[in-house]
Amino acid sequence: MSDTASPHGKGVRERLQHWLPKLVLSPSCVLILFFVYGFIAWTSYISFSDSGMMPDYAWAGLRQWSRLWSSWTWGIALHNIWVFGLLYIVSCTVLGLLLAILLDQRIRAEGALRTIYLYPMALSFIVTGTAWQWFLNPGLGLEKTMHDLGWESFSFNWLIDANMAIYTVVIAAVWQATGFVMAMFLAGLRGIDGEMIKAAQIDGAPAWKIYARIIIPQLRPVFLSAIVVLAHLAIKSFDLIVAMTGGGPGNATAVPATFMYSYAFSRNEMGIAAASAVFMLAVIAALIIPYLYSELREPRS
Amino acid sequence: MSVATSARAASSPGRRITLGRAILYALLLFFAVLYLLPLYVMLTTSFKPLAEIHQGNMLALPEQWTFAPWREAWGSACIGLECSGVHGYFFNSIKIVVPAVLISGLLGAFNGYVLTKWKFRGHKIVFGLILFSCFIPFQIILLPMARVLGILHLANSTSGLVLVHIVYGIGFTTLFFRNYYANFPDELVRAAQLDGAGFFTIFFRILLPASVPIIVVTIIWQFTNVWNDFLFGVSFASGDSAPITVALNNLVNSSTGVKAYNVNMAAAMVAAVPTLLVYILAGKYFLRGLMSGSVKG
After folding, report:
1. Helix, strand or coil, per DSSP, at residue A176
2. Residues 38..57 of A with a Cβ closer than 8 Å to B: which?
3. Residue B82 forms beta bridges with which residues?
């Protein structure tokens, strides 16, 4: 639209109007270029340098990367994020869709129920972690409550069991994010065209069949959005693990995000930390860039 | 459009309570209880004396209500070596949130305006580059940012965190406003241009007054994100300038002495109340904005 200015009437005012939009946009662009893309380049360089406690910009080739891949903890972190991410994404999607379908049956008090399902999203992961750490505390929490209620054999000590601790984090994370996924699916359900549904009903198709054959297939874009958002939340998960388990017992609940933080700020191994961060970015980029590309191209149709 | 909606519209409007409806409500209620339980336990625990926590049942209401844990959490609990509760950190968070939300929101509004109403060659690429910043794992910027904040003398200060939150908030605020303004009729902008209105006049007189819904969405989103941030806080402001989330974590996970669960829960509630309040008061506008498609992806 800025091109509508006539070519010969080039007063100062008009030229200013021509440049003004770009001028207004430029501070954000400069900030993003420096603090996002500049920093990505910077961290990538650190991962190929000799940096330990202090930055040392001597080129070290792949030394930090080979140290990263031979790290036992990094192996655990990768395994954990795989387990955590998969369970988190699948549980949130299934539960979110279920809640959305249940809420979409023209029920009473829909607003209140929606608010209840969604409120954990407003909480900080640190608050959620604190609450669930207490809730699942083997000595005083759920386990003791069940014993008090007469279920003497009930045992739930996952929080301090190295093999099970990661699942407690999954439970808390699912509790926190399901509401958001539900809201996305609910928006999707409300946007579906009713004609096909009516036609199927006239044909006497049962409700579950209508959902399975007509409605859920039409929610494909919502599935995609939900999975992308959840995957990126999972890879970024740091706060919840710090608050709930601190990465422990031992290293049992380490994930790449906590690995990077501890190598950067407590173990003073900047090079390894940078390499792990670059790896995280690469995984997310492989996921997000195709998604953004398709989302931004779409409006053409 | 749900199956039930059209089914009911088609059949008689009578309010029959069928077995299916009963199961439906039972399920909904079950999940509601499940979602409320942790909050309930947090709240009741924060009002119990410690002795009652050790003896009593987690799900029981306090036999003896006490506000002492709240007073202690707010004013005298020990975080590190300092024993003055979380109130200082609470105000730190406010000092961080207010400017960060306002400035990143304003920048996002301008960006969205330019990217939809003053398109230029390559505007899609610029938007893509800005948008990608929403999704980066922030671990990638921690090391350089710590260095830059040190050089700018902003390390361990709330101003430093304000800067960090503005920079990494721009992506989302730009996304919200761009998607909202994309649906704003171009004709109105063009008509104003023909009347001689300039860039800022059009923005402040025409677009901004029509932007209330998206402003609400942006403020809620940014407020929640910045208030709940932990990673930036713990990385760049560990001392007196730490935000409430960092203080809460230090309080709960410090291993000295007997664990005062009631004080921990009260402190967690203090950290949770502002975002909960915003959500309860304005959440329905957020949901409406979300449903109208202004928040995509």
Report:
1. helix
2. 38-40, 42-43, 46, 55
3. B79
> From CA B248, how far away is CA B63, in angstroms rounded?
26
CA angle A173-B43-A147, nearest 5°?
Answer: 75
Query: In terms of CATH architecture, what is B87-291?
Result: Orthogonal Bundle (1.10)
CA angle B83, A249, A146 (to 5 degrees): 85
Out of B35, B58, B271, closest to residue A116 by CB:
B35
| Domain range annotation of chain B | 15-66, 87-291
Q: How many separate helices (H) and strands (E) can be counted in chain A?
A: 15, 0
A277·B1 Cβ contact <8 A: no
Put simply, the answer to whether B224 touches A122 (Cβ < 8 Å) is yes
Chosen for mutation from A51, A74, A127, A297 (greatest number of chain B CBs closer than 10 Å) is A127
Position A60 pLDDT exceeds 70: yes
- H helices of A104-248, where? 110-118, 125-135, 142-148, 165-190, 194-202, 207-210, 216-218, 220-236, 239-244
Global confidence as pTM:
0.88
Q: Residue A49 gets which letter from DSSP? A: B
Enumerate the residues of chain B whose CB falls inside 8 A of the CB of residue A106.
2, 4-5, 8
In our burial notation (b when 16+ CB lie closer than 10 A, e otherwise), range B81-91 reads: eeeebbbbbbe
ipTM, interface predicted TM-score of the complex:
0.86
**A86 lies within 8 A of chain B by CB:** no
Chain A residues with beta carbon closer than 8 angstroms to that of B228: 123-127
**Percentage of residues in chain B with pLDDT exceeding 70?**
90
Instruction: Spell out the SS3 assignment of chain B.
Output: CCHHHHHHHHCCCCCCCCHHHHHHHHHHHHHHHHHHHHHHHHHHHHCCCHHHHHHCCCCCCCCCCCCHHHHHHHHCCCECCECCCCHHHHHHHHHHHHHHHHHHHHHHHHHHHHHHHCCCCCHHHHHHHHHHCCCCCCHHHHHHHHHHHHHCCCCCCHHHHHHHHHHHHHHHHHHHHHHHHHCCCHHHHHHHHHCCCCHHHHHHHHHHHHCHHHHHHHHHHHHHHHHHCCHHHHHHCCCCCCCHHHHHHHHHHCCCCCCCHHHHHHHHHHHHHHHHHHHHHHHHHHHHHHHCCCCCC
CA gap B77, B69 in Å, rounded: 9
- What chain A holds in terms of domains, given with CATH numbers, is 72-300 (1.10.3720.10)
* Contacting residues for A51 by C-beta, under 8 A, at least 6 apart: A57, A270, A271, A274
The pair of three-digit structure tokens given for residue A22, joined into one six-digit string: 């770009």
For A143, nearest residue in chain B (alpha carbons): B58
Distance CA A38, CA A48 (A): 16
Pairs of residues, one from chain A and one from chain B, whose beta carbons lie less than 8 Å apart:
310
Q: How far apart are CA A191 and CA A206, in angstroms?
A: 21
Tell me how many degrees the CA angle B47-B49-B55 measures, rounded to the nearest 5.
115
Average pLDDT over residues B286-293: 64
Q: Which segment of A239-253, A261-275, B6-20, B42-56 scores lowest on mean pLDDT? A: B6-20
Cα–Cα distance for residue pair A122/B280, rounded to 1 Å: 9
Minimal-distance CA residue of chain B relative to A40: B140
